[in-house]
UniProtKB/TrEMBL annotation:
Keyword Nucleotide-binding: no
Protein name, per record: AraC family transcriptional regulator
Source species of the chain: Paenibacillus piri
Coiled coil start-end: none
Keywords: DNA-binding, Transcription, Transcription regulation
Residues in HTH araC/xylS-type domain copies: 196-294
Length: 297
DNA sequence: TTCTGTGCATCCCTAGAGGC
DNA sequence: GCCTCTAGGGATGCACAGAA
């Protein structure tokens, strides 16, 4: 089974969508330059993709890659039909290699380490989309496909925006459903709430004197434990993260204000300007004065 | 005024053990 | 899985001196 990962920051753009009633034209090869998501409304649909043959039942979805050659390989006895939506994705969906690494080992199921304010968003949590899938919310999905079809037939106002919304909803249902069907045990542990609570606290009070005692009192747990939990989910220690928040604020003040280095150090909760300079250089690679020189117009 | 280097006391991090 | 405790080593915070 193939799986794809889509970043939550991906830009999706719906190109075209339609409900297709299987006819003779289905039995010649089709190609298109976009991703194509199929959902069978009346089955079976006998679908050949490159050299592989599939029998898709009503309610099943199938994701085709751009330029992937596909066609029908057998005529059904009765009526068969499916919805399809073609869309682009920037960045492209990432195919996961499940032959060398089981899907459960890809660390894309929870945000966990991607929540720090100072981190870039390049490694944002992703949606897991299977190539072929049978969602349990079949009728809800079909409704969204009907909405897509209607929007495309009667393009009014921000219809392209709404098309993208419907597509995102469909992808969300697929990936959420997949999680519920296959990864029920992978719920976030209670310690994750402690981490979130501490993260909020740090964001609100990083400019104050955050000692071990302050954090212990706030969290009602030993500092050693809180420190372990923070390291587990963020990948860094508490003090280092506080420094990053402080330096982030200092960078803003250096660029936008005329405050002296000493005043900025005090503003971000470091009494010693010398020490501030040392920390700043450690994180940014240049001392504060040099940073101001480079960024202040 | 700011930066850099050094030294030193204190604080914090972390691994491991163990109880619930 | 959650939580506490301990101990050792490393990091931090601060002071001071000298230079730019």
């Amino acid at each position: 089974m193939k799986y794809y990962a889509a970043s939550r920051l991906s830009v999706f753009d719906v190109k075209w969508t339609k409900q297709y009633h299987v006819s003779d034209s289905f039995y010649t090869y089709h190609y298109n330059p976009y991703y194509q998501l199929i959902m069978v409304s009346e089955g079976p649909v006998y679908l050949q993709v490159e050299n592989e043959r599939f029998i898709l039942e009503a309610g099943e979805t199938f994701l085709l890659n751009p330029w992937e050659r596909h066609m029908g390989w057998r005529k059904p006895e009765g009526v068969s039909a499916f919805f399809w939506v073609q869309f682009s994705s920037d960045p492209p969906l990432k195919e996961l290699d499940t032959s060398t690494k089981p899907i459960s080992e890809y660390e894309i199921l929870h945000a966990e380490k991607n929540e720090l304010r100072t981190k870039t968003t390049s490694d944002a949590d992703q949606l897991l989309i299977p190539r072929r899938f049978k969602p349990s919310q079949r009728f809800k999905m079909l409704n969204y496909f009907e909405d897509l079809d209607n929007e495309m037939k009667h393009p009014v106002g921000y219809f392209r925006f709404r098309l993208t919304q419907h597509l995102c909803k469909i992808l969300e249902i697929i990936s959420t459903d997949l999680l519920e069907q296959n990864f029920r045990t992978m719920t976030l542990p209670g310690s994750y709430n402690i981490y979130r609570q501490l993260l909020n606290f740090l964001h609100d009070f990083y400019q104050t004197d955050l000692t071990k005692e302050v954090i212990e009192n706030k969290m009602n747990r030993s500092y050693e434990y809180v420190s372990q939990v923070f390291k587990k989910y963020s990948g860094m220690n508490i003090v280092h993260y506080i420094h990053q928040l402080r330096v982030q604020r200092a960078k803003h003040l250096l660029e936008e204000s005329r405050l002296s280095i000493q005043e900025i150090a005090k503003e971000i909760g470091i009494d010693d300007a010398f020490y501030f300079s040392k920390i700043f250089k450690q994180i940014e690679g240049v001392p504060p004065s040099k940073y101001r020189e480079m960024h202040q117009s």
